[in-house]
Amino acid sequence: MKHDLHTVKRAINGDASAFEELLFKEEKMLYYKALSYVGKKEDALDAIQETTYNAFLGIGQLRNPEYFFNLVV
């Protein structure tokens, strides 16, 4: 599922609700991708929590909003 660039730009500019919206659109894909890497439900959830926290802290450094689409595929 593609996100509109406007939502990504809002997240880059510090809009936490936009970042949350982006995550909710991809939550199932993130979970199953993490689960495929780590193998256990609890470990997958931990990995997602850590990754999304780091992504939230660093999204302001994303210079090209269209690259966000490459990060979640």
Provide key terms for this protein.
73 residues, mainly alpha, 4 helices
Please give a structural write-up.
With 73 residues, the chain is mainly α. It has one domain (5-72). It contains 4 helices and no strands. The radius of gyration is 12 Å and the shape is elongated. The model has no long low-confidence stretch (mean pLDDT 89).
Short summary of the structure?
The protein is mainly alpha-helical and 73 residues long. It contains four helices and no strands.
End-to-end distance: 9 Å
Query: Are there runs of 5+ residues with pLDDT below 50, and where?
Result: none
Tell me the fraction of residues in β-strands, as a range.
Answer: under 5%
Quickly count the helices.
4
Cα Rg: 12 Å
The biggest sheet, with number of strands, parallel, antiparallel or mixed sense and barrel status, is: none
What layout of secondary structure does this protein have?
Blueprint: H1 5-12, H2 16-38, H3 41-58, H4 68-72
